[in-house]
Design a protein that fits this description.
36% of the residues lie in helices and 20% in strands. By secondary structure, the protein is of the alpha+beta class. Helix 8 packs antiparallel against helix 10 and helix 9 (256-265) crosses helix 12 (333-340). The protein binds flavin-adenine dinucleotide, D-malate and zinc ion. It holds the Pfam family FAD_binding_4.
Length: 477
């Protein structure tokens, strides 16, 4: 592309256009430094009309377009390939909260709004926007929607898909679809917003969304419980669901290996116990009515868990600061793994009842084939989502280990997932990391239907090509 071409693009919209290598570099590598691409430029439109102008410019010149939000994704979906032909469309400047309607319990935000900003705006209006994940200080509403993010409260409030009532989207030919309806009931045909949610930018650019708000809980109770194994964690889950019902809002599993890893990289993030334990559960309840009721129900639950021998030790947070301290252990896990080296990630989903045996058998098989390999198993146990990651044995360089054994280990994990009718991507999406695996495990009919939808909406294949579905610019990790 020539300077004249970029000047032409620059003249089409009012936002910012970055083309100098030092300006575009942060948009061309993901946060874990697993993928680096090249791009013609990075466009940062200010308004939906400007997004449409940029998309039309790309469509007219057959320029591939890669939408990018906070660039916190785990699967390389927001990073262009290394061809240098694509334009990255960053939503960073599309960041206004357009409306909060406390009676309708809705908030309408532009796609580039940071998740924490939306949570804060909901809180100031006396409401809760419940999506919560470790990257909430930098991920965006558009990225959450495009990847159908999950996080730590899915068991109570659902994935991002369930939190969205309406969307505004720029289609691949540059038309604006205003579907920003705040309705709980709308049976007027295909639910088009669901096509764009979880599409990872392959069907259009999400520019704004109307999100569901909830009442703010009156009290929050948090505990870290030490258990002997994932089977005990499942018994605790059953008990917690029986006693706390819908007030149970988070139930996170972490192996002792994971907790030790966090302590090694972040010495002030330690489990508050005298000795180490093989497994931990971080659980939280959010009572809508009263603190006293929350405290009583939670204490009774922990007492019963002790008496039944399910829990070996437990720390119940007595203040917000203590609760934050326990969550810091959990939320530092992704970064601790990254500091340890780029390990093999498996974001998988299996029936909750199968998790105990899954971890037992799969971990034994991995260690038997790769003596010393470290399985880092943690995740959102309450909704069946495990982050089942594998690191090299101590002393073995991570890249060499992954090169030599990665494919075989991942195949072993995904075969085990497939046997229990699980999913090879629970919440992170497919991006460029799992394109081949998805095509392998999804039924032929399902893949063909997805291809037909892609063909119908984006016949020239310009929207995030090679991501999610196999395409020309797809290259394996
Ligand atoms: P990006 O990474 O910029 O993009 C993600 C995908 O969405 C790409 O395919 C991109 O092309 C597309 N996209 C972005 N914006 C748009 C748009 N406006 N229109 C169309 N397509 C778009 N994820 C979870 O699900 N659960 C977790 O618990 C979780 N924990 C995390 C913890 C940490 C510390 C980190 C770093 C990440 C975590 N993630 C988690 C992954 C990530 O944060 C989420 O996937 C998040 O939703 C991505 O948002 P983003 O704005 O960074 O999107
Ligand atoms: C998390 O839940 O912390 C992230 O989704 C997981 C990860 O780092 O793999
Ligand atoms: Zn997660």
């Amino acid at each position: 592309m020539t300077d004249a071409t970029l000047a032409d693009l620059r003249s089409r919209f009012a936002g910012r256009l970055l083309s100098a290598p030092e300006d575009t570099a942060p948009f061309l590598t993901d946060w874990r430094r697993s993928w680096t691409g090249r791009a013609l430029a990075v466009a940062q439109p200010d308004t939906t009309a400007d997004v449409a102008a940029v998309v039309r410019w790309c469509a007219a010149r057959q320029v591939p377009l890669v939408p990018q939000g906070g660039n916190t994704g785990m699967v390389g979906g927001a990073i262009p390939d290394d061809g240098g032909r694509a334009l990255v469309l960053s939503t960073a400047r599309l960041n206004r909260i357009r409306e909060i309607d406390p009676i309708n319990n809705t908030l309408t935000a532009e796609a580039g709004c940071i998740l924490a900003t939306v949570q804060q705006a909901a809180q100031e209006a006396g409401r809760l926007y419940p999506l919560s994940l470790g990257a909430e200080g930098s991920c965006t509403i558009g990225g959450n929607l495009a990847s159908n993010a999950g996080g730590v409260q899915v068991l109570r409030y659902g994935n991002t898909r369930e939190l969205c009532l309406g969307l505004e989207v720029v289609t691949p030919d540059g038309e604006i679809w205003d579907g920003l309806r705040g309705l709980r009931k709308d049976n007027t045909g295909y639910d088009l917003k669901q096509l764009f949610i979880g599409a990872e930018g392959t069907l259009g650019v999400i520019t704004a969304a109307t999100l569901k708000l909830f009442p703010r809980p009156a009290a929050r109770m948090t505990a870290l419980a030490a258990v002997s194994d994932p089977h005990a964690a499942l018994r605790l889950l059953e008990l917690a669901q029986r006693r706390l019902a819908a007030t149970l809002t988070a139930f996170e599993l972490m192996s002792g290996v994971c907790v030790a890893l966090v302590a090694r990289h972040f010495p002030d993030c330690r489990a508050p116990f005298e000795r180490t334990h093989p497994w931990y559960v971080l659980l939280e309840s959010s009572d809508p009515h009263s603190e006293a009721r929350a405290t009583q129900a939670f204490s009774e639950l922990m007492e019963e868990a002790f008496e039944a021998g399910i829990v070996a030790d437990a720390a119940i947070a007595a203040s917000l600061a203590q609760s934050d301290g326990l969550w810091r252990i959990r939320h530092h896990l992704p970064e601790a793994q990254s500091l340890e080296g780029d390990n093999l990630k498996h974001d998988i989903s299996v029936p909750i009842s199968a998790i105990g045996e899954f971890i037992e058998h799969t971990s034994a098989a991995i260690v038997a084939a790769n003596p010393g390999a470290r399985v880092l198993a943690f995740g959102h146990l309450g909704d069946g989502n495990l982050h089942y990651n594998v690191s090299a044995p101590y002393g073995v360089p991570q890249p060499a280990f992954v090169r030599a054994n990665g494919a075989a280990i991942s195949a072993l994990v995904y075969e085990a997932v497939h046997r229990v009718r699980g999913s090879i991507s629970a919440e992170h999406g497919i991006g460029q990391l799992k394109v081949d695996k998805n095509a392998h495990y999804k039924a032929g009919v399902e893949m063909a239907l997805m291809q037909k939808i892609k063909q119908a909406l984006d016949p020239h294949g310009l929207m995030n090509p090679g991501r999610l579905l196999p395409g020309a610019s797809h290259r394996a990790h």
